[in-house]
Specification:
Elements lengths: L1 H44 L7 H36 L4 H32 L11 H31 L27
Helix pairs in contact: 1-2, 1-4, 2-3, 3-4
Length: 193
C-alpha cells in the first residue's frame, strides 16, 4: 500500500505540474497575442504620415491616454508569464532557452518603450495642434520608428511562444511525461520533477 500511495502522489504531482504548464502556455499565447496584436493594429491602421497635424495630435494623445497603462500591464505580465513558463519547462533545454529568448524580446520592448517612445509621448501630450513645435514631424517619425521596432520585438516573442507551445512533441510532454514505449506505458528515467 505504501508504494501505491507514493506512485499515486507522484502521478498527481505530475498531473498538477502538467496542468500548470498547459494553463501558462495558454495565458502566454493570449497575453503575447493581445500585446502584439494591439501594436500591430496601430502599425497598420494609424500611420501618422497620413494624418493632418490636428488629426495626428488628437489621435496620438487619445491613443496614449487610452492604451498606455494597458500596454505596460500586458508587456510586464507577458514577460513574467513567459519566464514562469520557461522555469516550469526547464528540463527541456530547447523550450527553456526559447522561452527565455522570448522574454528577452519582451524586455527589449519595455526598454524601447521606456527610453524611446515614452520621452516623445510625454512631450506630445503637451502639444496643442494650433501651435506645434517646429520639429514636430521629426518627433512624430522618431516615435513611429520606435513603435515599429517594439511591434517587431513583440511579434517575434509571440512567434517563439506559439511555436514552442504547439511544436510537435511539446504538446503533451514538456519533459515530464516522456514514455519509453507507447505499448508499455512505462515512465522513462529521470523525468520526475
Amino acid at each position: 500500500m505504501g508504494i501505491y500511495k507514493i506512485v499515486t502522489s507522484l502521478f498527481v504531482a505530475l498531473k498538477l505540474k502538467f496542468m500548470a504548464i498547459t494553463i501558462l502556455r495558454f495565458l502566454n499565447i493570449i497575453l503575447a497575442a493581445l500585446l502584439a496584436g494591439t501594436s500591430f493594429g496601430i502599425w497598420i491602421g494609424f500611420n501618422p504620415a497620413n494624418f493632418s497635424p490636428s488629426t495626428y495630435v488628437e489621435q496620438q494623445q487619445n491613443t496614449v491616454t487610452m492604451l498606455n497603462s494597458l500596454m505596460i500591464f500586458l508587456v510586464v505580465i507577458a514577460t513574467i508569464v513567459t519566464m514562469a513558463s520557461a522555469f516550469l519547462q526547464r528540463k527541456d533545454k530547447k523550450v527553456f532557452i526559447s522561452l527565455l529568448i522570448a522574454a528577452v524580446f519582451f524586455i527589449a520592448c519595455i526598454f524601447i518603450s521606456r527610453f524611446g517612445n515614452k520621452p516623445i509621448q510625454d512631450n506630445m501630450m503637451t502639444w496643442n495642434f494650433e501651435s506645434l513645435p517646429a520639429d514636430w514631424t521629426v518627433l512624430r517619425d522618431k516615435w513611429w520608428d520606435f513603435h515599429i521596432m517594439r511591434t517587431i520585438t513583440e511579434l517575434i516573442a509571440l512567434a517563439i511562444i506559439t511555436w514552442v507551445s504547439i511544436k510537435k512533441g511539446n504538446l503533451t510532454t514538456s519533459g515530464y511525461f516522456n514514455v519509453t514505449s507507447a505499448n508499455t506505458g512505462k515512465w522513462s528515467e529521470g523525468n520526475f520533477p
